[in-house]
Write a structure and sequence with these properties.
By secondary structure, this protein is mainly alpha-helical. It is built from eleven helices and no strands. The chain has one domain (about 40-249): MetI-like (MetI-like fold).
Length: about 250
């Protein structure tokens, strides 16, 4: 049996050990409770349905923002990679939006659109599009012109060309953008909820922050982190290994 498969579990066990040591050193559950002190609170939130409800709301926001950011960022990035003229025009825009703090975009969206669901999703999407575009621009530049020429010679349809020529070459770049995208988007979604929503994990963290309830802050934060770890290990990492298999061939 390959012991390296269990390395992530050993790593998490080590992190939990450090947490327990820090909790014993602090010796104050109000400041840093131990993991087992969170279990009754987690069970209570789960039994009441509040935890699943807020997790579901946050996951839907993450999903919407992810799909929009990946779609628009991919289209912009590939177009920039294929057209040097377009790249010269849009590159300053990318630099500006990459360096614009997420908090500023969130506040502006709330001021312009209102404290609505649309404003929350737009704010998160706008924050992530430049990062996706940067990665996919390199993917567009890496496309093999010989394969393009072959597709033109055989007069392949747009869909056939996209499916069998373009997307296979872009797959590693899409995988990299997706993995980085999920990690960034869910953090920005929590900030959006913290500032202006009445539901979601970020809203609950804001609520318990005002009450200075460290234990409940940890319950909601760790619950969502566990969900994202499952998505990372079960979906994103296997997909990335699959699309990057040609590099190791």
């Amino acid at each position: 049996m390959d012991s390296t498969r269990f390395t992530p579990l050993y790593s998490i066990a080590g992190l939990l050990t450090l947490w327990v040591l820090a909790a014993y050193i602090t010796d104050d559950p109000q400041i840093l409770p131990t993991p087992w002190q969170l279990l009754p609170l987690f069970g209570g939130e789960l039994a009441s349905g509040e935890l699943l409800r807020h997790l579901g709301v946050t996951l839907m926001r993450v999903l919407w923002a992810f799909v929009l950011a990946m779609s628009l960022g991919t289209a912009i990035g590939v177009a920039m990679g294929r057209s040097e003229r377009l790249n010269r025009w849009l590159d300053p825009w990318l630099v500006i939006f990459l360096n614009l703090p997420a908090l500023v975009l969130i506040v502006l969206c709330y001021l312009w659109i209102g404290l609505t669901e649309a404003a929350a999703i737009v704010a998160v999407t706008l924050n992530k599009i430049p990062n996706v575009a940067i990665v996919l621009r390199e993917g567009g530049r890496a496309l093999d012109p010989n394969l393009d020429a072959m597709a033109q010679v055989y007069r392949l349809s747009w869909w056939t060309r996209m499916r069998h020529v373009i997307l296979p070459q872009l797959a590693p770049f899409l995988a990299a953008a997706a993995r980085g995208g999920v990690a960034v988007i869910w953090k920005i979604v929590l900030v959006v909820e913290f500032l202006g929503r009445s539901s979601g994990v970020g809203f609950q963290i804001h609520l318990y922050f005002q009450l200075f309830d460290v234990a409940m802050v940890l319950v909601y934060a760790l619950s969502f982190i566990c969900v994202m770890l499952v998505a990372e290990w079960c979906l994103l990492q296997p997909w990335e290994r699959r699309v990057g298999r040609w590099r190791r061939a």
